[in-house]
Write a structure and sequence with these properties.
The structure holds 2 protein chains of 2 kinds. By secondary structure, chain A is α+β, with helices and mostly antiparallel strands. Helices cover 31% and strands 27% of the residues of chain A. Chain A has 5 helices and 5 strands; from the N terminus they run E-H-H-E-E-H-H-H-E-E. Chain A has a 5-stranded antiparallel β-sheet with strand order 1-2-3-5-4, covered by helices on one side. In chain A, a hairpin with a 3-residue loop joins strand 2 (65-74) and strand 3. Chain A is globular, with a radius of gyration of 16 Å. The model of chain A has no long low-confidence stretch (mean pLDDT 92). By secondary structure, chain B is an alpha/beta fold. Classes of the chains: A alpha+beta, B alpha/beta. Chain A binds chain B through residues 23-24, 26-28, 30-31, 34, 51-52, 55-56, 59, 111-113, 115, 117-118, 121, 124-125, and chain B through 33-37, 39-40, 52, 54-60, 62-64, 80.
């Protein structure tokens, strides 16, 4: 199911582990991804979209899965967010992609999540989006935001900048 | 230029953390309690007006690079929220005023400067 990019074309990548129901650290992974891309000089408008996509992906894993991973890749022409989780999966993806549809319980809603905007937001901010889910097993999601020629990695850029 | 400090002083709000950041410029605002809505639609340098108090609001404000968060209607931020806000450098401001009144007055302040 997972089709990671070939290593030769990757400028920057990271993989993060997430645990279900760990709302204390919610946002941490998105924040790290955002800062890494900023340090690499990726254009602001791309980072803004990726921040929303990464955050919603993170919240989805924390809210609905037992555990999962989020990976990101900076490629010559795009930034990719890839997520894979084990958990309840999604029964009806078409419905889950409709704004307002949510299976969130009250504890999630009380925190201001679970409004049925997560997946629609991810799709809205992605230039390319795919999602595969197996109920009872888990979900795989891949989202790309194109750089539209606005980014050129420099050889002398420091990975740890 | 309207700063958070101008807003705090004019509206009589109370800053709970990150006083040192009150000179930050406020360019606009967003009001909302649904985090996904705020993530999708708010902008950098917005002041975010909300009734939510738990620590995830800091994650959202930090990711979106908001100028600060104003918690309305006498609600108090959780202690975890303040600790996280301190760490991230996001001013958290509280008020007894309603969301409607806060937003209306900030809107007026921002547009008087135009």
């Amino acid at each position: 199911m997972k089709k990671s990019p070939a290593p030769s074309e990757v400028y920057l990548e990271g993989v993060f582990q997430l645990r279900g129901r760990d709302f204390v650290d919610a946002g941490l992974v998105s924040s790290r991804i955002k800062n890494s891309l900023k340090n690499k000089g990726v254009p602001e408008d791309t980072i803004r979209k990726i921040a929303v996509i990464a955050f919603e992906t993170e919240i989805n894993i924390i809210s609905y899965a037992k555990e999962g991973t989020i990976s990101f890749y900076l490629l010559p022409d795009r930034v990719v967010i890839e997520a894979e989780d084990s958990g309840e999966g999604i029964e009806n993806i078409e419905m889950a992609l409709q704004e307002g549809f949510s299976t969130a319980d009250d504890s999630i809603r009380e925190m201001g999540f679970g409004a049925g905007m997560g997946l629609p937001n991810i799709r809205k901010f992605s230039d390319d989006f795919e999602i595969v889910s197996e109920p009872g097993r888990g979900t795989y999601l891949k989202s790309s935001v194109m750089l539209n020629g606005n980014y050129r990695a420099k050889d002398d850029q420091d990975d740890n900048a | 230029m309207t700063t958070l400090e101008t807003i705090v002083e004019t509206l009589g709000l109370k800053c709970k953390c990150c006083w040192e950041k009150l000179k930050t410029e406020v360019k606009g605002g967003y009001a909302g309690d649904l985090l996904s809505d705020v993530m999708a639609n708010s902008k950098e340098h917005d002041v975010w007006v909300t009734r939510q108090v738990h620590q995830n609001i800091v994650a959202v404000a930090s990711l979106k690079e908001h100028a600060g968060i104003i918690i309305v209607q006498g609600a108090q931020p959780d202690s975890d929220t303040l600790a996280k806000a301190q760490k991230e450098g996001i001013p958290v401001i509280v008020t007894e005023l309603s969301e409607f009144e806060v937003v209306g007055r900030i809107y007026k302040l921002l547009h008087e400067q135009d």
